[in-house]
Amino acid sequence: SQQGEEDPQALSIQEGENATMNCSYKTSINNLQWYRQNSGRGLVHLILIRSNEREKHSGRLRVTLDTSKKSSSLLITASRAADTASYFCATDEYGNKLVFGAGTILRVKS
Amino acid sequence: DGGITQSPKYLFRKEGQNVTLSCEQNLNHDAMYWYRQDPGQGLRLIYYSQIVNDFQKGDIAEGYSVSREKKESFPLTVTSAQKNPTAFYLCASSMGQRGEKLFFGSGTQLSVL
User: Fold this and answer.
1) Which residue of chain A comes nearest to B107, CA vs CA?
2) A45·B33 Cβ contact <8 A
């Protein structure tokens, strides 16, 4: 089952610009997570936001969660070439295992 | 260094052959997971285990088998019944069971000869 759906599928920006990715989901959740994957590598956890939180920051990352709209966004500020990767949201389906979306491919041009 | 080790990085399977992907973790995590990733798609759960000697099917378990005899190890066997095995396989672990943060290995790319 596919819970989170990311939008856009692909995003290309210039270094220094901000990148925004969105995630929508269908069922109630306890938390939502964002992961990054460099090409041919495993996923790396970026940030977890719980259902009772509306916004969370970690360095250049800002995540928002709107449970009424069942959506989340990931903002990367002042992007760098090293931010080029795929970004996935993941939600806990009924508080159990994580379900991942198809991801957003971000390309940051230097 | 603590982490998850997957091996091999690349694996080739012949027609009708079973192959086993290794996953070892030294994070002392209770839960372990196997995901399959196809190009341009998200991760799909194959099997997961929350405790030693116990595991559950995920969304796409057909054609796969696992074992969890030790806390540190969760090998995945891709059997000959899996007709489309070419994919990137990712192993992950977490401390607990309730949708917490996952730690991933670096993956195994399986291809069919």
Assistant:
1) A42
2) no
Is pLDDT of B15 > 70? Answer: yes
What's the token pair of residue B39? 């190009």
A31 vs B6, B41, B99: nearest CB? B99
Give the residue among A49, A3, A4, A41 at the shortest CA–CA distance from A22. A4
What DSSP assignment string belongs to B49-74?
Answer: EEETTEEEE-TT-TTEEE--SBTTB-
**A9, A21 contact by CB (below 8 A):** no
Low-confidence stretches of chain A (pLDDT < 70) are 1-4, 94-96
Instruction: Supply the pLDDT for residue B39.
Output: 87
A chain contacts of residue B97, beta-carbon cutoff 8 Å: 96
